Amino acid sequence: MSNPIALLANPAAADGSSLKCVDLARAEFDARGAHYRLITPAGQEAARREARAAAERGETVAAVGGDGTIGLIAGALRGAETPLVVIPAGRGNDFARVMKIPTEPRAAAALALDGEERRVDVGDVDGAPFVCIASLGFDSDANRIANEAKVVRGNLVYLYAALRALIAWKHANFRVVVDGQAHDLHGWSVAVANSKAYGGGMFVAPHASLDDGRLDVMLVAEASKLTFLRDLPKVFKGTHGDSPHVTFLKGEVVEVSADRPFTIYADGDPIGELPATMRVSRQSLRVLVPRGS
């Protein structure tokens, strides 16, 4: 018999469309005779508190929302025996993409009843959790523009934001220390990846694994804006590693600083400021995924 389900919903995810996903998830639970309760926390701290309380009650937590919501709940459930069910309702849904979780809400909700458990890593920026990729530099500007966009919707917002950010961008100097080894970079950006993808299907860290206890670090060094535009489509296929301007590293602890302020974004949301230290907790989160995936 399945555990009772705590259905947590973020009404603000994807401009409120998560409410439609909630209705479909509830329809699946009702059709299957599942015991569940709906929770719509008011704010991040309330969401964390509700997730922890659900874990203490032995409930399965089903989170409806985008990658930001999933990262927040993942942090609350780190180290707990409680499994997480992801019902994608954001713009990018990259964690679900990499985990092969269905985007159709009823199919995703069904994993609470018949999915199989997989243990995955959770990253953090000075203690603030994330499940996908934390990035900064050019990415800071692009993420801010994407979050402020009113006209462009869906995955296209990330491409739109990148092109807008490109116009005003000036290269920065970064210092990145990976497990004690320093790397100095003049250029575009630093991405610290727990998973492979962000930005609605950009496979920024194609070799990243969600359960290896390590963070994949991508450094993008100085190159012209024309070169950047030429290489941008490669990111959607994960083939940008052949560029001489791109370097990949791996480690458990990543310290980043720069010669000017940058906000760090992860899972679509601002998560910290430089200087910052990123760490990973190995296989600390239990996620229910399709059997055989």
Describe the structure.
30% of the residues lie in helices and 34% in strands. Helix 2 packs across helix 3 and helix 7 crosses helix 8.
Reconstruct the topology from this structure.
Elements: E1 5-9, H1 18-32, E2 36-39, H2 44-56, E3 60-65, H3 67-77, E4 83-88, H4 94-99, H5 105-109, H6 111-114, E5 116-125, E6 128-130, E7 133-137, H7 138-148, H8 156-168, E8 172-178, E9 181-193, E10 215-221, H9 225-235, E11 246-251, E12 253-258, E13 263-266, E14 269-273, E15 276-289
Helix pairs in contact: 2-3, 7-8
How would you summarize this macromolecular structure in one to three sentences?
The chain is α+β, with helices and mostly antiparallel strands.
Number of helices: 9
Gross morphology: globular
Structural class comes to alpha+beta
Q: Could you give the distance between the termini? A: 22 Å
Q: Beta-strand percentage? A: 25-35%
Global Rg: 19 Å
Largest sheet: 15 strands, mixed
Q: Helix amount, in percent?
A: 25-40%
Average per-residue pLDDT, rounded, comes to 93
Give the number of DSSP strands.
15
> Secondary-structure element order, as H and E?
EHEHEHEHHHEEEHHEEEHEEEEE
Descriptors:
alpha+beta, single chain, 15-stranded mixed sheet, 15 strands, 293 residues
